[in-house]
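worker-03 picked up job from queue 'complexes'. Input manifest follows; two sequence lines, order preserved.
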Amino acid sequence: MIEFQNVSMEYHTGTVALKDVSFTIQNGEFVFIIGRSGAGKSTLIKLLTCEEKPTEGQVLIDDFDIARIRRSLVPYLRRNIGMVFQDFRLIETKTVYENVAFAMEIVGRSRRVIARRVPIVLSIVGLREKAKALPGELSGGEQQRVAIARAMVNNPMLILADEPTGNLDPTNSETVMALLEEINRSGTTVVICTHNRELVDQMKKRVIEIDDGYLVRDDAVGGYLRHTPCSTPDNLPPATTTGIGPEGRQP
Amino acid sequence: MKLTSVFLSLREGFRNLVRHPLVMLASISTIALMLILLGFFTVFSLNARHIMTVAGQQPPIEITMRNGVGDKELADLDRYLANDDDVLEFQRYSPQENFNQFVDNMENSELFADFPIDNIPYTYTVQLVDPSLAESFQTRVAGLAGVRKVSLELAVMSFLSDAIVWVNYATLAAFVVLGLISFFIISNMVRISVFARGEEISIMKYIGATNWYIRVPYIIEGALVGLIGAAVAWGVTMFGYDRLYSTLMAGAKPSDVLTMLPTEQLTIIILMINLVIGVGVGSLGSAASVRRHIQV
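worker-03 finished. Artifact:
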C-alpha cells in the first residue's frame, strides 16, 4: 500500500513542487496520475523511488516511511518497484536478453534462474524472437516492451511508469497499456504518470490529478478532464470528485 | 556480496576497460610513466644507499696496538671483534706486514732496510655494518687491553650517515608526490568513465543496484589499469637498468666501491613497489572518485 499523508515537497531552489498532498493507493490498483507539465507528477514519482524526501508529511510504502529509510536500504526498496520511462532507458550496449537479465543480476539471482525467467518474461511482452537484438535495432514500441519486461522480471509489488507512451504511436501505446493492464491483473500495483488523454479516457481507471502541486482530483474511475463525461460501465461507481478514493476513503 | 555478484563485478570491471580503449590507454600510459619515474628514482636511491654502505664499510677505522703487545691481548681482541654484532669484517696486520706495506709505498725502499721492526705495532682494520656506529665502537674498543689508539674518519662517517638519511627522505617524498599524482590521474580517468556511463549508472540505480554493486567494477577497472601500468613500468625500468648495468659494470669487480646493485637483486623489489603503488593507487583513486560521483 502507498500512502501520501499531507505531503509537501520544496526543492533547495525554493520551488514548491507538492503542497499538502494526501492519497492512498491500495495493493493491486491501477492508477493514472495526470497533470500539466510542472504540476508535480515527476516529484511524486521521485518521492516513491526515494530520489527525494518530503519536506513535510509522510510517504509510506508498505508502512515504510521513506523519509526515514536508511540510504543503504534504498536499493532494496527500489527492487520492489519496476520503473518504466518515456525514453525507455535501456542499456544500448546490451542485448534485449541482457537488459532484462541485468535487472535480475543486480538483485543477485543465479544464472540458472535468470536463464529460466527471462525467456518467459520476453514471451509475455512478445519479444522472445528478438532476445539477441540490441535496443537500437528495435522500434520504439518494442523498446518500451523491453523496458516493461525489465520492470516486471523481478515480480515487483509496484510498477511506476512515467509517460510510458510519450514516444509511441497510438497502436504501440495501446499495446503497452494492454501489457501494463495485464501485469496489473496479476496483482501488481501500477501507477502511470501520463499526458495521454485518449488512453486515460479509454482505460477508465482511477485518476489522480495534480495541479500546481495540489491534488485537485481523485476519481475512482475518471477521464482525463475533470468534467469529461466517461462511459462508466453500470457495475462501477460514477466518477468521484476530489478527495474520494476508490474505496470511498478520505485521502 | 554474493558470489554471482562478485563474478559479475569482475566481468564488468574487465569490460569497462575495453569499452573506452583510448581513455584506458591514456590512463595506463600515464600510470606507467609515473611508475617508471618512480622506479628509476627507487633504483637510484637503492644504488646510492648501496654505494654509501659499501663506502662506509671500507676501512676508515684502524686500531693501533701498543708496541710489544702480548699474544693474549691479541687473541682477546680477535675474539671481541669476532663477537661484536656491529663488526662486519676485520683484518689483523702484523708488524712485518705493516712494515712491508710501508716500504712498498716508499720510493727509496732500500733506505728502510735496517729499520727496527720492533717499533712497528700490530694494527687492525675494521669494517662496520653501519657507519653511524663508528663513534660508539671507538669508545668501546679504546678501553680494551693492549689498544693504543682507535682512529676513524668521523667527518666521512657522518657525511655518509647523513647522506643515507637524506636519500631516504627524498625517496619517501618521491613516493608521496608521484603516488598522489597517480592517484589523481586514476581518479580523473574513473570520473570520465562514470560520466560517460551516467545513463547506465542511473538505470542501475533505478533497478535497485546497491552503491557497492555499482562501485566495485570501477574499483576493479582502476586496479587493472594500475596493474597493467605497473607491469609495463616494471618491464621498462628493469630493461633500462639492465642495459645501464651491462654498460657501466662491464669491467667492475664486486669489491669496488662504486658498484651498482645487480639487476636480479632489484627485480622483485621494483615489481613489488610497482604492484603495491599501481594497484593500490588505482583502486583507491577509483574508489574515491566513484564514491563522490555515484550516490544512490
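worker-03 released lock.
The beta strands of chain B are 61-65, 87-93, 123-128, 147-151.
Chain B touches chain A through 19 residues (CB under 8 Å).
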